[in-house]
Each structure stands twice: as C-alpha cells, then as structure tokens.
C-alpha cells in the first residue's frame, strides 16, 4: 500500500510562517505577536458573535490581571468551569498569560466527576461565570476564590502582563475521560502545545486564511489542539455543535469552514448525512483520527466529499501529542478493499516511533509490539502521580534518554517506516485457552458488507467466557447473523468468531466521540426494567416516535413515558434521534428538545406543536 506523507502534499498557502524557534517561547508570547500584527483579524466565532484578535487579547489581559491580584505571587493551578465557549478561550489565554496551569472542566460532566477533578487538581482558584457560580461554590470553593469572567469590574489593565514565562513551564493539566478508571491529569508544557500548532501549519497548511472547527467541548484535548492550531497560526476558530449531522454540514457551508477536525465516529456520521444539496467549496481538509478508519469510511469520503477536499488520518495521545499522520488516498485500493487495515502513517517532525516487547526491549522489524514514542515534546507526566509517570515515561531503553513514552497501544511498522495501529494491549483477552486480540475481530467485522461499525467484548466468567459482537448495520443492506458468521469464517479461526451478535442502531459514544465500551449492554436486549411502568403509545405520532426509538435502541418495545437517557441514550444518540425525526417529519428540531422532553409523550407534544407551526402533516391519530 502506497501512503503519502503529509509534508509532500501541503505546500505553503500563505506568506505566514511558524518557525521552529517559535516553540521556544510561551503560548502567550506567540498569541500576542499575532494579535499585534493583525488586530482586526477574526479569531473566534460562535453563532452570530465574532471576536477579533485584538479584543480577545485585551479581554484575556483583563482576566490575567484579576487572577494575578488573587494569586499574590503564588504558583497554582486554576480551574475552569465555563459554559460559554468564547469565555472558555478568553480564560485559557488569561491563565497562560499568568504563567500558571489551566485545568479545564466540561460543565456537562456529572457533579461527582467534577469534584474528583477539583480535588485531584488542588486548584486554588476557579474561573467561572455568573451562570456557573453556584456550581463552583458547590465544588467547595469560597466566593473569594472564584473569579467571574463576565463580571470582572473596571480598572483592570488591558495591557499584556509581560511576565517571563518559560516554554518548559506547565500550561495545562488535562484530565482523561476516565474510561479505564478514575480521571487522571496529564500535564502539558507550553512548548508541547506550540509544537502541535507548528505541525498543523507545516503538515496541514494551516494559516491565517483558514476557518477551523471541531464540534466537541473545548475541555477536550483534540479540540484544544484545533483551537491552538488556529490561534497560534493567525486563523479563525468557529465553534459548532453537532445537533444533527445534517445541520452541522449546513453550518460548514454557511461559515465557510476550511478545516474540520472530526473523530472517525463523527466523520462517519457526518459523511452519511451528505445528500448533494449542500456544497462545500471552502472545505479543503478533514482531519480525523481517534479510532480505526475503515475501508468503507474511505470509500464514503471518496463518494461524498467535495472535489479538492483531502482527508488526513492521525494517531496521537494527550501524553505525546500528534505522533503520526498521513494523507488518505481516496482513490487507493483501500477504498475498494474494505478489509485492508489502513495505516496511521509516518512519525511527525521531532518524533521517533519504535516498538517494544513485554520486557521493554525493542522488537525486530516486522514484529508486533507496544508503540513507544521518543520526543522532546512529550508531557512531563501525570499530575501528582509519580508512580504512574514512572510506569509510562521511561528513562530507557533507547539511547539513554528519559523522553520515551509507552502508549499501551499495539503496533506494527512497515518496511518503509509506516505505522499500523493494532489496538490496545488491554484489549487482549483469553477465551477457551486462546489469547485473542479483540481489535482484530472488530477490524474483521468492520470490513464486512452491511456493517457500519462494530465492537466486541469478552462476556462472562473464566471457563464460560464468550465473545459478544455489537454490530451497527448499514440501513440499506440486509445483514443476518448467519451471513456474518459465514463471512468471518473466511478470515478468522473458529475460536475467534463471536458467539453472540447484537445489532445496535448506534454504538454508544462518549462525549468526546469515542466508543464507550463501558456502556455496551449485556445480552439479551429486552426493554430494561425501569422505574417507570410501561405505557404503550396511543396516538399515531407516539407510535411513529416510539418506532424510531426502538430502531435506535434495538429494543423490543418503548413506553411513552420511558426516559431517553435512562434507557442508555447519550448526546450523540440524541443527535441521531433528532436526525431521524427531521427525516421522517420534515421539521426542524434541536437536540436540546431531547434533554427538555426526554420521553416519547413529551417529545410528541413538541413535534406536534412544531408541525402545526410549519404546516407539516403528522400522524396525529
């Protein structure tokens, strides 16, 4: 398979440059240089609101002065608890200007999780809004320790603080999703994030003419990368939401987005919504990763993306930044042979990738091993967890350097140095005495006709453990368990073929867009026993809505008073629900409607009211 390196593809599109020496400064200094050179250039856009570089710089300076007054010269981490995305960016910049570390919290997190992060971060101050002040006080802060970003008062200087901030100093503590246990904070230095921004410019061509979006929370690593890629390269960042895939595509057109950063799950959902009505002449690049990119994903991108739009597939981690990326050849054999395992590409600049065995020795060429990364731009480790840091950040075995990170991922390196990602080490299980890599089963399932996406788990106790496959089907292709078994038997040994197949309308996705394995249901899939008694649909509208819910949840029945989220729904499943309702009833409905009206009965009332306003014909009886 021939894979093109990104550096061979993107030529400089602008006189703007990001020299390597810029990584040896602070985030604040880099941003202030750009704001000084182009004060009236668009920096942020959210809905109808536009913020230029000069205004963003001045407002972040005011916040920095307020924080410095509270800190009184002390070092501290500072928590962010904000709903408004523009406030979020302003606060991040204000904090890094003080030379302290920013700890972003997603306000959609459960309170218990917010408290876990708050306690672990040991943050002395919290930046909040009037809207989130009560939540901040609920985390244990006193009013004197809360800085209100939308009520700073007068008299604060709008001039740059001018503090000497080292490029090696701590800028962020980013908490992981906690899918493998309690949240853990990953430290980020100034230079690490500047290096990521430099890669976006040098390898992806990001420059001041770009308008970039990533429809996930600004508290997540990927969105932070995209945000800094914009602000550290003089481009604009446009905040978007994935209320529905179709609406998101329309927003790409309306806002003239040039670069969209989408995890593979979101890319799949968005490209499935293309119907030819929307033209995206400005869209030049989709940057994707986070999950396995399948042949069917590539083929779909080739069919629906506008001419000239390219797709870059990346592999990275919060600890190591961007590790590899490459141009996806939309006309390659991989698009015609979905079974091909698509590689994650070549190491980026200043990064060396190699593989280790279970004893920490470098494996020979052609063998599989744990992916390890050597770079001067790694995280310094895990916040207040030296034992975990020692486990993953090694002082060897390569060249006696301390800058080595063990990712916990399995990989294979081709003869030309191209990396293949083979899944997590901890996805290996033992079934009937055989050691099995579940990722291999998922890749095989994902290559089959009619399968949109797949996951697998080992279910049960030792001796009776079975493999369960969760399959998300292509709606237009008939798929049966018998057919899946027959196709898998052509590529997998008998002991690797799943014992149980469960069809889901959509695999459960966490808030950051990744597969949520902890949310996969145990078999069987009858309607769960809820506190709410089952009440059958009565009107024609309720029957049709209930049927859509049944399709989404793959349940045998849905009651009119069953709660969408108690049934296991999440935000992306709610997006799917809204898209289906819009397709069926031809009405415009916001994802907020699902949160405000989470039952069939309540949602039917909203759909009925909107139908009357729009004149849509609904099955009311």
Per CATH, the architecture of the domain at 432-519 is 2-Layer Sandwich
Report the count of strand segments.
25
Summed over residues and divided by their number, the pLDDT gives a mean of: 86
Output the strand order for the largest sheet: 2-1-10-9-11-12-13-14-15
Low-confidence runs: 335-339
| Alpha-beta classification | alpha/beta
* Proportion of residues in helical segments: 25-40%
What portion of the residues fall into strands of 2 or more residues? 15-25%
Instruction: Specify the overall morphology.
Output: globular
CATH class of the domain at 432-519: Alpha Beta
Number of helical segments with 4 or more residues:
18
For the biggest sheet, the summary is: 9 strands, mixed
Can you tell me the CATH topology of the domain at 432-519?
GMP Synthetase, Chain A, domain 3
| CATH superfamily label of the domain at 432-519 | ANL, C-terminal domain
Cα end-to-end separation: 57 Å
- Rg, rounded, reads 25 Å
Task: Describe the protein.
- The chain is of the alpha/beta class.
- Among the domains are: 432-519, GMP Synthetase, Chain A, domain 3; 540-614, Non-ribosomal Peptide Synthetase Peptidyl Carrier Protein, Chain A (Orthogonal Bundle).
- It is built from 18 helices and 25 strands.
- Helix 6 (190-204) packs across helix 7.
